[in-house]
């Protein structure tokens, strides 16, 4: 039996130099895999933010398209103004969706940037929403001319 005076204690952790060769390699590999999983998770978070943004843009564009279609579907004289009003409401709702989507995207992107992640520049979101707003303005003009 060992009384501990020979320098070996079974309960104390060993440093890297005294570990068997395979244990240090396994520990390094596990640490590397954990870092890779963390990096992949961060990338998935950035991509999820972008997917959410584009989903809201698609929904807004669908609302604008529906706003153009509704007045043409409601063709009776009694429903003409109702269709026009509903169409305008849907077009405005679509543009508002785009603006709110950009605001949310930029807010989340700011938080992700503080965490040190690489992101798509915010100007890309601004350009997309500006284009969507232009489509909305053109849709309103088309609707009012009809």
How would you describe what is shown here?
It is a single chain. With 146 residues, the protein is an all-alpha fold. It is 77% helix and 0% strand. The chain contains three helices and no strands. Helix 1 (21-73) runs antiparallel to helix 2, helix 1 runs parallel beside helix 3 (122-145) and helix 2 packs antiparallel against helix 3 (122-145). The longest helix has 53 residues, at 21-73. It is elongated. The N and C termini lie far apart (99 Å).
Give the gist of this structure.
By secondary structure, the chain is mostly helical. It has helices at residues 21-73, 80-114, 122-145.
Q: Which keywords apply here?
A:
disordered N terminus; 146 residues; mainly alpha
Percent range of helical residues: over 70%
Radius of gyration: 29 Å
In DSSP terms, counting alpha (H) and pi (I) runs of 4 or more, how many helices?
A: 3
Shape: elongated
Order of helices and strands: HHH
Terminal Cα separation, in Å?
A: 99 Å
Overall average residue pLDDT:
82
How many distinct beta strands?
Answer: 0
| Percent range for β-strand residues | under 5%
**By helix and strand content, what is the structural category?**
mainly alpha
Largest sheet: none
Low-confidence stretches: 1-5
């Amino acid at each position: 039996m060992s009384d501990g005076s020979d320098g070996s204690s079974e309960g104390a952790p060993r440093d890297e130099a005294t570990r068997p060769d395979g244990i240090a390699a396994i520990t390094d590999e596990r640490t590397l895999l954990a870092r890779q999983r963390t990096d992949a998770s961060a990338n998935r978070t950035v991509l999820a933010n972008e997917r959410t943004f584009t989903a809201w843009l698609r929904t807004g564009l669908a609302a604008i398209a529906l706003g153009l279609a509704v007045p043409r579907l409601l063709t009776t004289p009694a429903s003409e103004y109702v269709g026009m009003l509903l169409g305008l409401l849907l077009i405005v709702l679509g543009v508002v969706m785009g603006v709110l989507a950009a605001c949310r995207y930029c807010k989340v992107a700011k938080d992700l940037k503080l965490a040190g992640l690489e992101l798509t520049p915010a100007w890309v979101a601004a350009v997309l929403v500006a284009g969507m707003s232009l489509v909305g303005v053109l849709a309103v003009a088309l609707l009012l001319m009809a």
